Amino acid sequence: MYLALKTIKGNTHYFIRESYRDGTCMRSRDLFDLGTDPAKYIIYPGGNAFYIDEAVDDRLRTLSRNYSVDDLDDIFWCFLKPEIRAALEPYRHMGGTSRRRTGKEKEENRQNEFHIFDKRRVHYLRFGYIDQGRIGRLPPKLFNKLKNKSRDELEQYFMEMERALDRSEFKVYVYVIFDLQKYFTELIAKSMPEGLNQNKVDQYFLEEICRLNSDRDFWTGMDTKWNLHEYLIRYVIMFFDSEYGRSSFLDDYIRDYMDSKRAYIPPHRKSSVILKEASTIFGVKEDDLKKMSRQGLTRLYRRMAQNLHPDKGGEKEKFVKLSEAYHELLKSKT
User: Fold this and answer.
1) What is the pTM of this model?
2) Domains in the chain, ordered, with CATH?
3) Rounded-to-integer distance, Cα 160 and Cα 74, Å
4) Below-50 pLDDT ranges, the chain
């Protein structure tokens, strides 16, 4: 089960949906319409306790093939009162049991193939690279979140992930995930797309989004029409209503500099030592660094790297320490 959002007459409506296997493909279906205010189905009996209205529970038990109370709690988690979430967060998912996968399930997972458009989205959202040349060497576990999901559930998942993007990243994100760099021979196509002929970039983008819209493999399990699918409209808005961020070229330059200029690989240090040193280097409290997401850490690093980079008048030693702390911290982020 998963939470799906849909805009209806300018208002956001919420639905509980389920992905299920239909022969060789995954499909989705609505299980419960939560309306515009899912919080109304949460009941607080007292203290920090809560439970979901029995009307929701009863309907899901009747309709869902894989109903789980834990899944239901996850769906309503973001709608809980903030003070209740804060009190229960340390105990969330405690006592959960993991089911060992059978040999058949493992084989299905090994055979599970992901659409290249999904892989490009994961790659950029995880690492922020414009150059997609590394995508073929990524570990398979990076795509575990995509397994056994219908196209509708996948699009809802990516919509949630894309909320972490800064507006300045929108246009380059669309440029990357539609692989527009393949149409250009200029070296800057993999580092500074704003330097390309933008009329041609616009043309190729329209061609690619139309191609994806008619890709039957991509839309497997979903009903499609001739007009542009609503899940792709957001990319048109991202692309034409945004400008390229100023730091896209600098980000790649910094990565190349670190790869080519560092004379040694520092030995692995314990995370507690790294956290204390990183707190000083980044000027952020240790607790804030622990809670910071990968995207938040990356943005913080990029801002500081622009000031500390030797080519920008910064000190090389401070830049190297910043980069080392950043990469060590990334290992602790999932």
Assistant:
1) 0.64
2) 2-91 (no CATH), 117-240 (no CATH), 259-330 (1.10.287.110)
3) 14
4) 97-112, 248, 264, 270
